[in-house]
Amino acid sequence: MSERPIDLGRALASFDALWSPRIVTRVNDYDIRIAKVHGEHVWHAHDDTDEFFLVLDGELHIGLRGPEGERTVTLPRGSVFTVPRGTEHKPSAPEGASILMVEPSGTLSVGDRHEEVPDRVDATTGRALEV
Predict the structure, then answer these.
(1) Which has the least CB within 10 A, 36, 63, 67, 105?
(2) pLDDT for res 26
(3) What pLDDT is recorded for position 125?
(4) b or e along 34-71 (b: 16 or more beta carbons within 10 Å of the residue's beta carbon)?
(5) Residue 9 per-residue DSSP state
(6) How confident is the model at residue 56 (pLDDT cuts 50, 70, 90)?
(7) Is 21 inside any structural domain?
(8) Are 62 and 116 in contact (CB under 8 A)?
(9) What is the rounded distance in angstroms from the CA atom of residue 3 to the CA atom of residue 64?
């Protein structure tokens, strides 16, 4: 954990990989992760944890599947949303976005239940930020 403030703009500029979170810091047993996203991610669910999203730049869409059917939540810059544990969801960003997520350390970015890990994903549990 850094003993100095972390500039999120500089941190985001330090990598190009999409849908591959970088761990900015940790709070207790939780990772604070940032990611650049563009296009669609995979449908997945986290069986044992909620997933918190904060949109730093751009706009994020989160498709949700539940007993009442499918719906999409749209998060413009500055918005937050928590996907409840066990809920199938599919983040997407047609125009691209930068996001911050809060998840227990070791949580897979493709969830516990998913069909595949896209080739473009280089770190499913987050990678240490190198700034």
Answers:
(1) 67
(2) 94
(3) 60
(4) bbbbeeebbbbbbeebebebbbbbbbbebbbeeeeeee
(5) H
(6) very high
(7) yes
(8) no
(9) 37
The residue type found at 84 is P
pLDDT per residue over 58-111, tens digit each?
999 999 998 999 999 999 999 999 999 999 999 999 999 999 999 999 877 655
Measure the CA angle with vertex 12, ends 54 and 111; round to 5°: 55
Contact 19, 125 (CB under 8 A): no
Length of the chain: 131
Rg (CA), the chain: 14
| CATH number of residue 55's parent domain | 2.60.120.10
- Domain of residue 18: give its range: 8-128
Nearest to 113 by CA among 76, 62, 65: 65
